[in-house]
């Protein structure tokens, strides 16, 4: 069974078609990156796949369940780390994680163990007792992803995980995301081409709400007839043919 399978997934706002007839599949354990210029439809796609907004038409199945007819089942299997880091600034890192455990109905005793596990797994030890609001952007993103992992999702959506981070913080977050490879299906959106190229198994390029190409970075460069990924991206954004 595929992790994600979309069939003609479409989202229209009044006079804008944000996502247009999207047909895409992602395998279990895959790290899939959605690339595209501003307004290409990446965030809207993630929102439909994570049941935050309903499609106008079409459907998507996540591990077999439809976002249209079974959104509650889908929500049990997924989690999202949104563009805006959603940590509680006055709680410590540990308290933020315990708070999320509470939301999922995990008992206090279990929550303590789960929180410590997550602190170790996401290498948050050195800042576990610090208030989240005092942390750098990189640490806040790392905490935000740890919070999304508490529910042990099969599929994790990361919307622009490294937006605004400096080069070092970005590299550290890449290592964390790479550590998820093969264990969790990850779909991330990004504007950083090198992020998609070095992290992901496959890349989908969106332009004008449509998927203009999909494949490994190598395949996309071959398809565009370019040796550099950035050049391939420009060609494919400007309407390279569908693969
Ligand atoms: N709630 C909304 N109401 C009206 N139009 C919207 C809404 N959300 C998104 N859009 C429009 O849909 C299109 C796709 O937007 P979306 O945010 O999905 O793109 P994106 O690829 O994520 O862009 P960015 O890289 O800038 O975040 C844009 O034209 C946007 O203005």
TrEMBL record:
Record Pfam families: ABC_tran (PF00005)
InterPro entries from the UniProt entry: AAA+_ATPase, ABC_transporter-like_ATP-bd, ABC_transporter-like_CS, ABC_transporter_ATP-binding, P-loop_NTPase
Keyword Nuclease among UniProt keywords: no
GO molecular function terms noted in the UniProt entry: ATP binding
Signal peptide: none
Gene3D superfamilies, sorted: P-loop containing nucleotide triphosphate hydrolases
Record bears the keyword Iron: no
Xref: PROSITE patterns: ABC_TRANSPORTER_1, ABC_TRANSPORTER_2
ABC transporter domain sequence ranges: 4-233
Alphabetically ordered keywords of this record: ATP-binding, Nucleotide-binding, Transport
Family: Belongs to the ABC transporter superfamily.
Protein name: ABC transporter ATP-binding protein
Organism from which the protein derives: Blautia celeris
């Amino acid at each position: 069974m595929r992790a994600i399978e979309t069939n003609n997934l479409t989202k229209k706002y009044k006079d804008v078609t944000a996502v247009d007839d999207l047909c895409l599949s992602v395998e279990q354990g895959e790290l899939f990156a959605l690339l595209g210029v501003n307004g290409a439809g990446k965030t809207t796609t993630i929102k439909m796949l994570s049941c935050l907004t309903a499609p106008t038409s079409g459907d998507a199945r996540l591990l077999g369940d439809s976002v249209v007819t079974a959104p509650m089942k889908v929500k049990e299997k997924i989690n999202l780390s949104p563009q805006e880091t959603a940590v509680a600034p006055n709680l410590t890192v540990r308290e933020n994680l315990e708070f999320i455990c509470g939301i999922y109905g995990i008992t206090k005793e279990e929550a303590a163990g789960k929180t410590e596990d997550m602190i170790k797994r996401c290498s948050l030890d050195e800042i576990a007792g610090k208030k989240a609001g005092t942390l750098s952007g990189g640490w806040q993103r790392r905490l935000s992803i740890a919070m999304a992992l508490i529910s042990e999702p099969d599929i994790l959506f990361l919307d622009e995980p490294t937006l605004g981070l400096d080069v070092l913080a970005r590299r550290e977050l890449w290592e964390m995301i790479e550590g998820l490879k093969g264990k969790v299906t990850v779909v991330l959106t990004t504007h950083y081409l090198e992020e998609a190229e070095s992290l992901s198994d496959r890349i989908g390029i969106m332009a004008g709400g449509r998927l203009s190409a999909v494949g490994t970075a190598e395949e996309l460069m071959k398809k565009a007839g370019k040796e550099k990924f950035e050049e391939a991206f420009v060609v494919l954004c400007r309407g390279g043919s569908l693969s």
